[in-house]
Amino acid sequence: MNISISNHKIADLLILIVLFSLVSWYAYDAYSASSHIVNLILILPVTAIVLVLCTVEFLSTLTAKALVEPEREAVASVLPVISLFVGYVLTLSWLGFDVGTFIFISLFMWLHGERRLVWVLGYSIAFATSISLFFAAMLPYPMPMLILSTAY
Amino acid sequence: MINIDDVYAGLSLLFSDFTPWLIVIPGILIGLIFGAIPGLQISMAMAIFLPLTLYMDFMQAMLFLTAIFTGGGYGGSIPAILMNIPGTSSSIATTFDGYPMSKMGRHNIALGIGLGASCIGVIIGYSLLFLLISPISEMVLKLGPAEMAAVILWGITLIASLSGENINKGIISGFIGLLIGTVGYSEAGVTRGTMGSIYLLDGIPAIPAMMGMFAASELFKLVNTKYLVKDESLRKVSVKEIIAGFKLAFSYPWVLVRGSLIGVFVGSIPGVGSSVANLLSYIQTKRKDKKPESFGKGNPAGVVASEAANSTSEAGSMATLLALGIPGGGATAVMLAAFAMHNITGGPQFIREQTDIVYAIVFANFGQAFLLILLGLMFIPILANVVKVPMNYLVPSVLSLSVFGAFGLTGDLTGPITVMVFALVGWIFKRFDYSVPAAVIGLLLGGMAEESLIHSYQISGGLWSYLLERPVTIIILVLLCLSLFGGKLVAMLSRKVAK
Asked: The whole model's pTM is what?
């Protein structure tokens, strides 16, 4: 059996291993909670199918001859944006929606080549303020804010 | 067949008060804008604006969402014609002849043809829905929990097998979605997959998860794009020529009717929808034409065929949603979420008990088709410029909007965190060719599928022989197997016959 391993193939295989593990863990968790048929009537058969398909896919990916590499954007180019987005969401409780959104938008614009400070600050302040005020006025519960009022 | 009392009730729902119509115009505009920006999907627009429907009654919410659907159906053709970039997957075939027309300097005519064909498509599609909804509702009333479970599994399998090149990965996505949909308290009174978090006791918040998977994950893919369209030559728009093109669409009546019929029937099959309907209609029109070689070189019939089919498939997917409670694709999945937000369960019972609302939705879409003509003519010149917005302004703004919307849905940070987690999941799924629509629909239907199976188990007493008393269930399961293995079976038989 001739097996050629490229970075794309390793990534594909890793994803399958992660999916296999997560689905197995979920089935085990459900089984531990209750082994009654009512609890497992959907989970068990669906898990079994997913695990079989993951195994089939794993083997076919592993044994596949080197094919044309799929065009995928470089992870390094998306990672800063994903990190920024994760940081934005996780700091909302401290920074509030107003300041958090301002920082997120201005950093995003700066990271992606907008160097006109007036535009960066002007747009991010205008957008963050207007959207925060709009949602604060619309929603029946208070929004976390640092500067603006939490409810209107 | 048609219940006249319900027709009157539906009309009075729509016209007794003017307020439902106030949200139709912004809805169509939102759809047009999102459709006109390549990379932004109609389902994304609907998911982002879904929280706003919390402040509307159910009828208004449906009008708003179907208006986005209608506007987006045409909006996608604008970049398809002007820049050879389909704004949505349902406009792929529009590029085949629309863009060559643009290169010939006939882009205004092509835009007009697209608008005309889309509007007529919506009218034909919803007319069919109006005529057939009663027989459909009578038929689906005979479906019990066993049939519903089989239909859900069939629908997810179809969506999974048709939404990508790799069927295995499609089914893995759909079934993982089903499993995610069962997280939290079960009917057996135990919790599954919560990892001890009290926030997950009620399950994963489906709508923020959907927003993350559809909208945010797509935006991650676009971060390295500065402008989707740089070339500004030949982009001037003439309303006079657009009107001439609009009239020209009517000179292809058979193409319109054929495209509409293909659209409505293909659109009603879960998972297939407008993405396939426009291609099928285009292929059929090309095959039947006396000069098939003229297609792909700027034949207006190609634009008519594609646009008639993709706008009609909206009515087809609405029929499946209303009759079975199963979304045919991303956009109707968001509508299913709107049903849940208003404590309404789509499906046989809904059609039987709320026929007036179903008729009102149908009539509203006739109105929307006419409004689309007006708004399309007014806003095409502006929308053609939307693609010139720098992505470093657009992407963070739409990401923030989805975070605000998710907070609005859950009332705490669970919503934004769910968007964040599922944005990452969606990005990984897209990157590795796992079907995002299948996963989202699985997530939405997981609870319903489990409930149907439990009820079937309780009714049958756990006996498999119960299935033999349910021929419809067996037929659906056979269809499920055929949709999975039918192609391979036919290929195998053809090889044997050839030998």
From this structure: 0.72
